[in-house]
Amino acid sequence: MSRAIAVLRPEPGNRVTAAAIEAQGRHAIRLPLFEARPLAWDVPDPSRFDALLLTSANAVRHAGPGLSKLRSLPVHAVGDVTAEAARRAGFAVAATGDAGAEALVAQATALGVRHALHLAGRERTLEAGGIIAQVLTVYASEALPVTPHEAAKLAGAVALVQSTRAGARLAEIVEPAMRGDIALIAPSARAAAAAGDGWERIIVPRDFRGTALIDAAIALAD
Q: How far apart are alpha carbons 92 and 2 in whole angstroms?
């Protein structure tokens, strides 16, 4: 019997990922570790910038009506999901990165970006400096409570750890003694390291675009 696959990302991505797993005949454990909520922000003059950097689709989902005032800016996005969210919001996507926030900045720099605006969460990797002229916080991800009973459901599962914060939060809710039969799939070495030690194994796929993480989790679960 295939192992269950635990989906830890916030909604609405949690149910989307879980549905994709279930569509392939596997059992998904839906356990969002965070809840994203919008924060108030002031829209700057778009003429000050030559690009918009987006590292999460949550920045698009929670930015609110002010986002429409920035549609003249070409978007540089991390991942296909973020890029697609930007397109649906009416933006032109100039480039999509597949290796994290820092790599996106390097890619944007190589493409000639010099004064970028970054819409981000309260907890983030990038700050102003270099080509990033300004960072605006448009949402926050709050940790959700997880009971010991809920954490116990992860026993024997493969857990999708889709961010560094998720790795750290998972380490908080799963005691070291419980980790030996839980395998992790992570998008980066940083996310894997945040989860700490003691897990059955941690796999970081070379490519995390599209369904790569889900495919890796299913392969490990079989």
A: 41
Q: Do 131 and 116 touch, CB atoms closer than 8 A?
A: yes
More confident residue, 181 or 98: 181
- Residue with the two structure tokens 């380490």: 171
Q: Find the helix packing angle between 13-22 and 212-221, rounded to 10°.
A: 50
CA distance 68 to 165: 29
Pick the closest to residue 53 from 80, 83, 84 (CA basis).
Answer: 83
Give the residue-averaged pLDDT of 29-47. Answer: 95
Give the DSSP H/E element, type plus range, for residue 95.
strand 93-97
pLDDT band per the 50, 70, 90 thresholds, residue 208: low
| 79 vs 99, more confident | 79
What phi-psi label fits residue 52: left (phi over 0), alpha (psi between -120 and 50 degrees) or beta?
A: beta
Q: Are 7 and 20 in contact (CB under 8 A)?
A: no
Q: Let me know: does 40 contact 101? Beta carbons within 8 Å.
A: no
Calpha distance 94→51 (Å, rounded): 9
3-state helix, strand, coil in the chain (%, to 5): 35, 25, 40
pLDDT class for 97, splitting at 50, 70, 90? confident
